[in-house]
Specification:
246 residues, two-stranded antiparallel sheet, globular
């Protein structure tokens, strides 16, 4: 990066901010699809927003946006867009797609809007002594509602999951940050991209996809939870060397 002309370094850095900002566009398109009950299209736009969020931080570190595009607070932009795409969009999806009992749909949507506002505003929501964790359930409501739809789960079961994850926001469990947590970082990234690709295949084939695809991708959730609950004092020294690689 340092060998590139200054103009190109600044252009690349500002391009990362633009890339992050597109998350708002994908979220808006998802809302539009939800309003007309185009569920597959809505999920596609939600998935694109997840893709952007999964890579913009990596690009920001690669292109050193704090140095070459310091006029914009990338972390603040990311949080604003994440609240929109991870919370607001799935809240509407939850109501419009009848994923929970009708009488409880609006209260459920309101609950995730309020609890997520708390989660996003915690001063230590994404930090843990440079190890990078989320404190409390990290508001993966978009992922949750997608699974509720594609698996066709019972609305009362969905309601139970929503209650559980709302509570877990306030439980100070340290959940891994897939693209930054140091421990087993390479393995986590490989599994994240592998299962993400499998989920993309399921999405392309939806609603005629084999259901085993979604159940297999849930194995990533098991890995994610297990690594999050694994006592952090077992972190290996060599894993720490990976911190600045990605």
């Amino acid at each position: 990066m340092s060998r590139l002309p200054l103009f190109l370094r600044k252009t690349l850095a500002w391009s990362v901010h633009l890339f992050t900002a597109t998350g708002a566009v994908w979220g808006f398109l998802a809302l539009r699809a939800i309003f007309i009950h185009e569920w597959k299209l809505a999920i596609i736009w939600m998935a694109v927003a997840i893709f952007v969020d999964g890579f913009d931080g990596i690009l920001a570190r690669w292109f050193d946006v704090k140095t070459y595009a310091s006029g914009v607070d990338g972390a603040l932009m990311d949080n604003i867009i994440d609240y929109f795409t991870y919370v607001v969009v799935p809240a509407l999806f939850l109501v419009e797609a009848d994923l929970v009992p009708a009488a409880l749909a609006l209260p459920c949507a309101v609950s995730i809007l309020l609890t997520s506002a708390y989660q996003f505003s915690q001063v230590d929501a994404k930090t843990d002594n440079n190890e990078y964790y989320f404190k409390g359930f990290p508001d993966y409501w978009n992922v949750l509602v997608i699974y509720m739809l594609v698996l066709g789960l019972n609305p009362w079961l969905n309601f139970g999951f929503l209650v559980l994850f709302n509570i877990l926001i306030f439980v100070p469990i340290k959940y891994i940050y897939p693209t930054r947590t140091v421990r087993l970082k390479k393995l986590t990234l490989i599994l994240t991209y592998l299962f993400g690709a499998l989920g993309a295949v399921g999405l392309i084939l939806y609603p005629n996809e084999p259901k085993w695809i979604w159940w297999v991708t849930l194995l990533y959730g098991v890995y994610y939870l297990a690594l999050s609950l694994w006592p952090r004092n077992t972190t290996h020294r060599e894993d720490r060397k990976e911190r600045e690689v990605f």
